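Hello forum,

I keep getting stuck at the same step: I have a sequence, I want structure tokens, and every attempt I make locally crashes halfway through. Rather than fight my setup again tonight, could one of you with a working pipeline run this one for me? It's a single chain of 179 residues.
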Amino acid sequence: MKTVGYIATSLDGYIARDNHALDGLESPEWEDPDGSDYGFQDFLSSIDAILIGKNTFLKVAEIGVWVYRDIPFCVVSKTLKNEEIPENLKEKVTVISGSPQELMDMLNDKKYSRVYVDGGKLLQSFIESNHLNELIITRIPILLGGGISLFGALPTDRKVKHVDTKCFKSGLTRSQYYF
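Reply #2:
Ran it on my machine without issues. Output:
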């Protein structure tokens, strides 16, 4: 099974402000003038399941637009309660918890071949434990100067292989890396 992180950051590597606000990263000026979604729906077509961290899920739920089709969607949390899941998402979301290895074992049992991992802390834990195979980062040309860092501290260096970078008319770039 392969795990793939797919995430957007500011040019200086922040996925949100300290208060989890996405202003600056979500703006009409970053929309693709050609109307594309920067390949996100194509990416979703390539995956079997989604693992998402609690804070990222709550932000997705707040936005109110469900773009994940009928892909199995697992929120990774030790504290999220079913009452916190919006009524319209209860049939679409499963709450699970565990270490990256335990999560991998659960997903392997379900015979998934490609799993999307999203959320800062969850991605960091998968990178630190060597459970992330691929990372796709869309860089938004803005400097936030602070906030929630995509990577955080790592106990050792992690080398990655750059596979591809695509530039968009809006100024965004999307780069793909293998671990």
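The chain has one domain: 2-178. If your local run keeps crashing, start a new thread with the error log.
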